[in-house]
Amino acid sequence: MPQYLLLIYGDPADAPGPEQQEAQMAKWMSYTDELAQSGALKGGNALEAIDTATTVRVRDDETIVSDGPFAETKEILGGYYLIDVPDLDAALGWAAKMPNIAYGSVEVRPVWEIPEPPAQA
Amino acid sequence: MGDPGAAGAGVSRASTAAAEAAFRDERAAVLATLIRQLGDFQLAEDALQDAFAAAIVAWERDGVPERPGAWITVTARRRAIDRLRRDRVLGDRVQRLRALAEREGEAGDVPAEEPSSVADDRLRLIFTCCHPALAMQARVALTLRSLGGLSTGEIARAFLVAEPAMAQRLVRAKRKIAVARIPYRVPPDEELSDRLAGVLAVVYLVFNEGWSASRGDRLVRGELCAEAIRLGRLLCRLMPDDPEVAGLLALMLLHDSRREARVDEHGELVTLDDQDRSRWDRGRIREGERLLDGALRRRRPGPYQLQAAIAALHATAATSQETDHIQIAALYEALARHAPSPVIDVNRAVALGRAGRVDAGLAILGPLLAGPTLARYAPLHAARADLLQRAGDAAGAARAYGVAAACTENAVARAQRRSRAVAAQPPRATGEPSAETM
Predict the structure, then answer these.
(1) How far is the alpha carbon of B137 from chain A, nearest alpha carbon, in Å?
(2) Whole-angstrom Cα distance, residue B199 to residue B245?
(3) Residue % of chain A over a pLDDT of 70
(4) Cross-chain Cβ contact A88/B181 below 8 Å
(5) What is d(CA B356, CA B362) in angstroms, rounded to the nearest whole number?
(6) ipTM of the predicted structure?
(7) Which residues of B touch A116 (CB under 8 A)?
(8) Taking the model in full, what pTM does it have?
């Protein structure tokens, strides 16, 4: 079955306030449980805040390390799930149920399937 | 469809013509079935192309088969197997070859499939081409290419895009369908109404693109209206129970009934009021009305049925003065409840003005004019001009027409609004200006 990476984006400013954090966390837990029970869940994690990120590049054999991500966008990657479902509609269905979907967004990316070596026909 | 120039030398025109006709008539249905059987959009198209070349040669030799569609389907499937055997890149080709070989074994020379499954294939194809995961432009191009009768070059010209860019757009869309695994199916019931609305939006966009064409490209883009109506008819056959499907076809037919009358001999747009109603296509009007009546009886109104009802009131009025503008304004109000839009509000205001309720019309335009988003929206200013003119404020009307002319993009409409701005200037302002509301 094809795998999809659900990349969870959001502007931290839009996230629920501290008083709702517990309720929101419960929603993530139950969402993850539901994914697991359906057999679709292959992996997933929440990520630490964007200000803990470091970006690495190598240019002309020189390694350039810089603080933070390069792009200046409000919506930042906050976490991901790796899922295994029959088709895009199924993946989009899971994305639409993401607990942050009302204020953030989810990018659904098919995982590249490495072609098998040429078979002996 | 295939390049007729590809026919080999020594092949008669007759067999080429027969193949071309068969492919024109059967292409969408055969392609739809092939995509399901092959599970690959691009492979299906390539195999169909191969089958076209094979048909020209084989039909010359053996005569045109009794069932050209079945012949093409079987031939294309065999060509697809050949292509899969040659292709060393596809990782799952062994699996796919096995599935296809099984199908060959069971089907023999004639596909053992029910006609209903072929109809289902075309519905699958429509829903796949109009999948919301594809960009709108890609949905439109893919629908026209796969289900319509237009070549890539024709679609490119109709949308004022270079042909290589359009070809690229189609390739990218097909690649996304394959790689992201957009399913080839009619959506389940719980998603059907949303997804069908998306399909209807694509068809109506095609129609509007052809309908609103400016002078220079009217001829080429007029084909888009014909294609949209063809697609509308196909959808009506495939989904006979959905009133919005019938509503959309009715709407397009009712608009299209005015095709001949809306442009004068110089290529200028003629407003609804000034059109020669004897040039309206009565057959289209009758068909549109019949479809609309059938749809309305199902008592599930929607935006297309409401718009078709408005178009029907225009189409069946003996003169523009006798048009039931009160009823039209009420229908626009109902439409705004379904799909709120400033465009609808503007049209409702114009209808109220024509029904003699100028103040009510201007009251609707007030908030739209105050907002920043519509400041450059030409029809808003044209509508205001029309209402001011009716209110006896000729100078205000002239100014508003001037604003409308300044912001309009369409060359034909611009020329017309300018000439109206001149006509509306005092003291010559005696005419009955009107906005073409539809």
Answers:
(1) 20
(2) 10
(3) 92
(4) yes
(5) 12
(6) 0.85
(7) 91-92
(8) 0.81
